[in-house]
Amino acid sequence: MQAQIDSINSEIASLRQQIIQHSVYRSIQDLEDLQVFMQYHVYAVWDFMSLLKTLQNGLTCTTVPWLPVGDAETRSLINEIVAGEESDINDAGGKQSHFEMYLDAMTQIGCDMEPVQNFILALRQGVAVERALEGEGIPKAAREFVTNTFDVIEGGKLHEQAAVFTFGREDLIPNMFLSIINDLNTRFPESVGLFKYYLDRHIEVDGDHHSHLALRMTSVLCGDQEDKWVEARQGAIISLQNRLFLWDAILEEILANRANKI
């Protein structure tokens, strides 16, 4: 199965490099630019959690009466990832999900919180995701990104969901972006500190260990069935293309805002 993993990595290498080297990172020069980035990216942070919980629901027993489900090693690894993402240590030493940390970082930096807060409120009230995404102030590209993720979620194919989670998600943080955030934190520590903590913690928790766990999960779910590997490959490619479209939209708004100041 390592051959199939290597094949996917080879096929998506160009897309990953386009994301890692995207101009959106270099475009972030001040707090206003970072606000724009976060006001788009927060929806990708949220739907990452939704994809993760979908995998947990499919790979473990989350109902009563409890029954053993699937492969015990896969159960262990998905539960470990969930624990790290859903109840990590925040900057104050308490427990928070990475999404909640992100919201706190957005608040600290002065983002417009109303769109994402209204989105979460609508979901709490039972509004369907598709309808909640129509809320005022949610960027079109963010709506499309989440919609594409939920197409995978609602498709019900665990091997495809695992591939999107494994190959197309939040490990694509280049050193260049970290350097920019470190610089902004030096200049504006009272505004960027929580976001820097989020990134540092995210990298620590979601580093090589979780990447290896996710690869193992995808391999187990695809097994020796070629059709599943084909769908896994397609899912990974589409998810990376969607990330590029999201980054393109963020860059376009940052540059438009800058042009309007001239």
List the SSEs and their pairings.
Blueprint: H1 2-20, H2 23-27, H3 31-59, H4 72-86, E1 88-89, E2 95-96, H5 98-109, H6 114-124, H7 129-132, H8 140-155, H9 158-167, H10 175-187, H11 189-205, H12 208-222, H13 226-261
Antiparallel strand pairs: 1-2
Helix pairs in contact: 1-13, 3-4, 3-5, 3-8, 3-9, 3-13, 4-12, 5-11, 8-13, 9-12, 9-13, 10-11
- What is the CA–CA distance across the termini? 55 Å
Radius of gyration: 18 Å
- Identify low-pLDDT runs: none
Structural class: mainly alpha
- What coarse outline follows from CA principal-axis ratios? globular
- Return the string of H and E elements: HHHHEEHHHHHHHHH
Rounded mean pLDDT score: 92
Helix content: over 70%
Total helical elements: 13
Largest sheet: 2 strands, antiparallel
Estimate what percentage of residues fall within beta strands.
Answer: under 5%
Number of strands: 2
Biggest sheet: strand arrangement: 1-2
